[in-house]
Amino acid sequence: MMQRQWIRLGLVLLAAGGVLTVALAENTSEQDPATAPLASRPHKPSAGKPEATKEAAEPEAMEWLKQYMPEMHKQITEAAAKDPQQGEAMLHKIQPFIAKTRLYPPEVREAAIAYRRLNLAVYRMVREARNAGDARQKEKLTEGVRGLLNEQFEKDQVVREYEITRLERQLARLKEEVQQRANNRDKIIQDMLRRLLEPASRPAK
Predict the structure, then answer these.
(1) Secondary structure letter of residue 48 according to DSSP
(2) How far apart are the first and last CA of the chain?
(3) pTM value > 0.90
(4) Which of 113, 154, 162, 172 could link 108 by a cystine bridge, Cβ 3.0 to 4.6 Å?
């Protein structure tokens, strides 16, 4: 009997704490294919049901890359043709970026993808600048890197501003929930008290 009471107490407290839960992702009910759920996103498997295999997730990721990042899709496809393990490793590395970016609205998604492309362009031009033997050529390449960094900065700002706005909305919802709890303090406590004191139901024989 004492053990049942402690179990009931734990369940009541867990239910009360659950009021503070707030969704961490924006509403993605739009029909934009880029925002469709990705099977590779982490999830807890249901009892008795196997987790979605990576083979099921990889085609979705490759299809997304083909539509929004065709150059990356081509690189992974060519790498996989030569060495399947290398292609799989490349896809695995970019999947977190896909899972996050596909949830963005179109303009933010485009900025995030452009930032990633610019990152590669900056790396290549920096390498050329370091290897340039002529001072004038080195200066020209350095200015090119500066231009790419400016463009990359603008793209990054778009993503950061969106994330700030999203977090502000989440914070506003959380504040509203906390205020609602404060307004319903007596009712919440009364409900908890009722659940703790009501007789434990006996299993049917």
Answers:
(1) T
(2) 17
(3) no
(4) 162
